[in-house]
C-alpha cells in the first residue's frame, strides 16, 4: 500500500501539493488525470523519493520514505520503483540491452554481468523486443523506445511502477499498445501501477481512475 | 557493471571523446618532450663542464669554442699553434690539457674523426670514459698509411664496427676518397656515455697530420687550405686546480691571438639563453595545456545539459550521487590514460626528431628513450589537472535535481 498523508510541498513559495490523504492499493492499476502543473509529477517524485515533502508522510509498503537518508532513498528507488517517462529518457548511444541493464548497475542487489544480461534479455522479450536487444535505441521507433523504457522499469521487478505521460509522444495505436503492455507487465510482476495521462480514453483500461483535484487540495494549483 | 556503463558511455560519444583525447595527447606530448629535452641538455652541460673548466683555442667566440670543444659541434675556424698547447700544459695547477684536432669525417657519415691523445681517455691513472672493448688509444706510433682509432659507442653501433675493424676518412660527410689510402684501425670501443663523445672516432692528433701530409704527397699541386699545416691543433680542453685556474686567468687575461673560455660561465650564458627560450616555450606549452584542459572542461561543461539529463535519468533509476561522480571521474580517467599513453609513445618519435636536430645544431646527444623524473610529474600533473577539470562540472551535475530535467 502507498499512503500519502498530510503532504505539503511548495516551489518558490507557491504551494503545489496539499494532500490530506491518498492511498493506492498493492497490485492495483491507477489512471491519474489532470492538467499540466497540477502536481502529478511532484506526487510521483515524492513516492519515488526523488523529492521530499515539507510536511507529511509518504509510506510505500513498510517504508517511510521521508525518513530515509538520500542514499537510502536512492537504494529504495533502485530496488522498488520503476519509472517510465513521456520522453523515454533512454541513453541514446546504448543498445536496448545496455539501457535495460543500467538499473541493475545501481541496484543494491549484487547482479553479475551475465545475470544482468539474462534478466535484461528476459525483460526485453516480455515487451516484445527480444530480437532487437542489440539495436541502438537511437535507431528505434518511438513505440520501440517506450517498450525499452518499460523493460528497463521492470528489470528490477519493482513494487511500484510509475508512468508519467507514457503515451505523450506516441500515436493513438501505439499509445494503446503501450498502455496495455504497462498494465499487463505490472500485473505480471504484482506491481502497483500509477499512470499519469491526458488521454482520458485510456482510463477505462485501468482498475481505478482518479482526478488529481480529488487528491491535491492546493488552492494555487 | 559500472565499468561497462562507463565504457558504453564513452563509446556512445565517439567524436567528442576522440577530440578531447587528441587535445590532451598533443598537450602531454609537448610537455613530455619539453621536460625531457631540457633535462638531457642541462644534464649534458653539467657532465661536460664537470671535468674541463676551460677550453683554449684560436681567437674566436667563447661560445663557439666551448660548443666545438665539448660537443664537437663544428671545426673551429682558427687553429691553435701547437706551441700554445705545450705552453698551457706547463702552467702550474693545470691537471690535464687534452689536445683536440678536427679535420675529417668517417667516410660517408656525419661522424667526426677527432685527433687527440691518450689523456682524452685516461688522466692520473683513472679512466675518463669506460671501455666497451679493446684498449684506449696509446702513444702515437708512426706507421705508414694507417693509424689506430678508438670509436665512440654510437659510431661503433651505427657502423657495425668493432676492434679489428677499419675505415677511411674524408673531408666532409658528403665527400669520399680524399684519404682513401689512409686506413684507421679500430683498437677500442668506448662504452655508451649518452654524450657527444659517443658520436666521434678518436685517433692521435699526429694521425690527422699524417693523413693530410699523405694526401699532399698524392696531390702535390693542390692547395690544402685547411689541413696541410703540420703542427696544428684546434683547441685544448683544460682541467685545473683552483691555483691553476687563477694562473690560467692571469696568463690569458690579455691574450689577443688565443681565446680561453670558461666552460661553466660560457655554458651558463648559453643555457640561460636556452633557458629563457625554454621558459617561453614552457609558458606556451602551459598555455596549450591549460587550453586543452579548458577544452576538456568546456567539453564536459557544454555537455552538462545532456549530462544533467543523463544524471537525472540515473538518479531516477536509483543511482546515488557518489556513483554518478565516480562514473564521470572514471570516464575522464580513461580519456587521460589513453592520452598519456599516446603522448608518451609519440614522445619517442618526437624525441628522435628533436634529438637529430639538437645533435646537428649543438652536437648534444638526445636520447629518444631516456626518461626523467619530471616526465612522471607531467603524467601525474596531467591526471591531477584532468580530474580536477572533471570534478568541477561533475560537482555541478552532482547538485542536479532530477525532476527538473525529466519529462
CATH class of chain A: Alpha Beta
Q: What string, H for helix and E for strand, traces the elements of chain B in order?
A: HHEHEHEEEEEEHEEEEHEEHEHHHH
Give the fraction of residues assigned to helices of chain B.
Answer: 40-55%
Judging from the principal axes of the Cα atoms, what is the shape of chain A? globular
Give the oligomeric state of the chains in this entry, treating copies of one chain as homo and distinct chains as hetero.
heterodimer
Strand content of chain B: 15-25%
Count all strands of chain B and give the number: 15
Biggest interface and residues each: A-B, 40 and 28 residues
Based on the structure given, which CATH architecture of chain A is correct? 3-Layer(aba) Sandwich
Strand content bin of chain A: 15-25%
| Alpha plus pi helix count of chain B | 11
Secondary structure: helix percent of chain A: 25-40%
What does this structure look like?
The complex is a heterodimer of chains A (221) and B (407). Chain A has helices at residues 40-48, 70-80, 96-106, 113-126, 142-154, 172-189, 212-215, and strands at residues 2-11, 14-24, 29-33, 55-60, 63-64, 81-85, 160-164, 192-196, 208-211. By secondary structure, chain A is an alpha/beta fold. Chain A has one domain: P-loop containing nucleotide triphosphate hydrolases (Rossmann fold, 3-Layer(aba) Sandwich), CATH 3.40.50. In chain A, the strands form two sheets. A five-stranded parallel sheet of chain A has the order 6-7-8-3-9, sandwiched between helices. Chain A has a four-stranded antiparallel sheet with strand order 2-1-4-5, with helices on one face. In chain A, strand 1 and strand 2 form a beta hairpin. In chain A, helix 3 packs across helix 4 and helix 5 (142-154) runs parallel beside helix 6 (172-189). The longest helix of chain A has 18 residues, at 172-189. The mean pLDDT of chain A is 89. With 407 residues, chain B is α+β, with helices and mostly antiparallel strands. Chain B has eleven helices and 15 strands. In chain B, helix 8 (263-302) runs parallel beside helix 11 (373-398) and helix 10 (321-362) packs antiparallel against helix 11. Chain B is elongated. The two termini of chain B are 27 Å apart. Chain A binds chain B through residues 41-42, 45, 48, 50-51, 70-71, 74-79, 81, 83, 85-87, 89-94, 98, 101-107, 111, 113, 116, 152, 156, 164-165, and chain B through 1-2, 4-5, 8-9, 11-13, 309-310, 312-323, 401-403, 406-407.
Amino acid at each position: 500500500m502507498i499512503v500519502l498523508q498530510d503532504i505539503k510541498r511548495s516551489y518558490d513559495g507557491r504551494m503545489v501539493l496539499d494532500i490530506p490523504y491518498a492511498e493506492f492499493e498493492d497490485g492495483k492499476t491507477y489512471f491519474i488525470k489532470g492538467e499540466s502543473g497540477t502536481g502529478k509529477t511532484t506526487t510521483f517524485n515524492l513516492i519515488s523519493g526523488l523529492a521530499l515533502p515539507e510536511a507529511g508522510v509518504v509510506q510505500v509498503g513498510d517504508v517511510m520514505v521521508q525518513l530515509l537518508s538520500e542514499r537510502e532513498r536512492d537504494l529504495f528507488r533502485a530496488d522498488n520503483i520503476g519509472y517510465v517517462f513521456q520522453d523515454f529518457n533512454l541513453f541514446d548511444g546504448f543498445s536496448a540491452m545496455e539501457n535495460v541493464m543500467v538499473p541493475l548497475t545501481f541496484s543494491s542487489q549484487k547482479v553479475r554481468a551475465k545475470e544482468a544480461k539474462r534478466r535484461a534479455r528476459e525483460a526485453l522479450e516480455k515487451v516484445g523486443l527480444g530480437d532487437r536487444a542489440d539495436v541502438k535505441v537511437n535507431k528505434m521507433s518511438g513505440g520501440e523506445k517506450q517498450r525499452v523504457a518499460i523493460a528497463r522499469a521492470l528489470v528490477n521487478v519493482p513494487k511500484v511502477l510509475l508512468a508519467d505521460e507514457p503515451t505523450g509522444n506516441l500515436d493513438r495505436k501505439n499509445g494503446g499498445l503501450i498502455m496495455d503492455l504497462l498494465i499487463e507487465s505490472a500485473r505480471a510482476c504484482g506491481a502497483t501501477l500509477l499512470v499519469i495521462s491526458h488521454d482520458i480514453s485510456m482510463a477505462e483500461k485501468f482498475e481505478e481512475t482518479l482526478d488529481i483535484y480529488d487528491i491535491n487540495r492546493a488552492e494555487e494549483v | 557493471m559500472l565499468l561497462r556503463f562507463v565504457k558504453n558511455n564513452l563509446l556512445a560519444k565517439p567524436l567528442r571523446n576522440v577530440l578531447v583525447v587528441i587535445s590532451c595527447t598533443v598537450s602531454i606530448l609537448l610537455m613530455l618532450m619539453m621536460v625531457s629535452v631540457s633535462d638531457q641538455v642541462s644534464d649534458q652541460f653539467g657532465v661536460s663542464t664537470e671535468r674541463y673548466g676551460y677550453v683554449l683555442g684560436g681567437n674566436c667566440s667563447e661560445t663557439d669554442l666551448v660548443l666545438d670543444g665539448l660537443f664537437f659541434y663544428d671545426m673551429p675556424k682558427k687553429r691553435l699553434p701547437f706551441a700554445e698547447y705545450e705552453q698551457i700544459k706547463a702552467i702550474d695547477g693545470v691537471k690535464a690539457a687534452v689536445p683536440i684536432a678536427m679535420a675529417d669525417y668517417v667516410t660517408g657519415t656525419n661522424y667526426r674523426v677527432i685527433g687527440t691523445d691518450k689523456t682524452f681517455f685516461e688522466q692520473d691513472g683513472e679512466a675518463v670514459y669506460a671501455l666497451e672493448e679493446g684498449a684506449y688509444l696509446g702513444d702515437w706510433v708512426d706507421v705508414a698509411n694507417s693509424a689506430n682509432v678508438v670509436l665512440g659507442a654510437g659510431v661503433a653501433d651505427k657502423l657495425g664496427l668493432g676492434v679489428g675493424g677499419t675505415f677511411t676518412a674524408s673531408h666532409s660527410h658528403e665527400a669520399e676518397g680524399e684519404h682513401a689510402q689512409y686506413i684507421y684501425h679500430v683498437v677500442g670501443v668506448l662504452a655508451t656515455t649518452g654524450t657527444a663523445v659517443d658520436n666521434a672516432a678518436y685517433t692521435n692528433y699526429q694521425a690527422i697530420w699524417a693523413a693530410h701530409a699523405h694526401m699532399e704527397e698524392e696531390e702535390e699541386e693542390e692547395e690544402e687550405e685547411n689541413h696541410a699545416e703540420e703542427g696544428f691543433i684546434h683547441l685544448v680542453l683544460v682541467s685545473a686546480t683552483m691555483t691553476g685556474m687563477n694562473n690560467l686567468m692571469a696568463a690569458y687575461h690579455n691574450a689577443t691571438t688565443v681565446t680561453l673560455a670558461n666552460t661553466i660561465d660560457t655554458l651558463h650564458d648559453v643555457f640561460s639563453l636556452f633557458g629563457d627560450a625554454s621558459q617561453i616555450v614552457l609558458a606556451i606549452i602551459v598555455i596549450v595545456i591549460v587550453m586543452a584542459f579548458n577544452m576538456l572542461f568546456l567539453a564536459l561543461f557544454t555537455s552538462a545539459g545532456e549530462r544533467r539529463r543523463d544524471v537525472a535519468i540515473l538518479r531516477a533509476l536509483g543511482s546515488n550521487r557518489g556513483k554518478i561522480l565516480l562514473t564521470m571521474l572514471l570516464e575522464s580517467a580513461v580519456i587521460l590514460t589513453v592520452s598519456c599513453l599516446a603522448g608518451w609513445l609519440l614522445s619517442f618519435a618526437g624525441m628522435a626528431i628533436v634529438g637529430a636536430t639538437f645533435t646537428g645544431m649543438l652536437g648534444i646527444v638526445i636520447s629518444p628513450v631516456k626518461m626523467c623524473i619530471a616526465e612522471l610529474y607531467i603524467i601525474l600533473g596531467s591526471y591531477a589537472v584532468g580530474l580536477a577539470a572533471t570534478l568541477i562540472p561533475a560537482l555541478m551535475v552532482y547538485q542536479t535535481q532530477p525532476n527538473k530535467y525529466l519529462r
